[in-house]
Structures are given as structure tokens and as C-alpha cells.
Design brief:
mainly beta; two-stranded antiparallel sheet
Length: 79
Amino acid sequence: MRITCPKCKEVQSADEKTATCPSCRTVLRRCVDCAHYDVRVSLCKAVNRPIAPGESHYPTYASASTYCRSYAPANPPSA
């Protein structure tokens, strides 16, 4: 999967074990960038679980999105 880093805007290839951008060390998977996240109600539709707005925008290494297997970029980078 290819993910655009939210901080440095570089496109990175990420697998299930990749958590951070190799350039700037920012967590790549953010709920707010995922197709399964409903911003209006702060809910992950993939796991049917509420996600705090702060965590959805600024995930930590312990956040649910960091290693999420259901993550799907809402706006995937063009090839």
C-alpha cells in the first residue's frame, strides 16, 4: 500500500509492519485519512469503535490506527 506522509508529504510504501515515515518518523496511518473513518461521529466503521478526534489527527505509537489492518487511504497517492 502507498501512503502519503501527513507531515513531509512524501509517498511511502507501507506494509502491515510499517508504522512511521522513514524520512520524518511521523506515524503514517491516521484515522482521519482512512476511508473507514466517519469524521462526523468520530467512528471507525471497520471495527465499529469510536476514535477520539485528537487521536484521529495526531496518532501515537499506541493508537489503534498505527498498525490497523483495515486501513484504506481515502485519497490514495497516484502512481
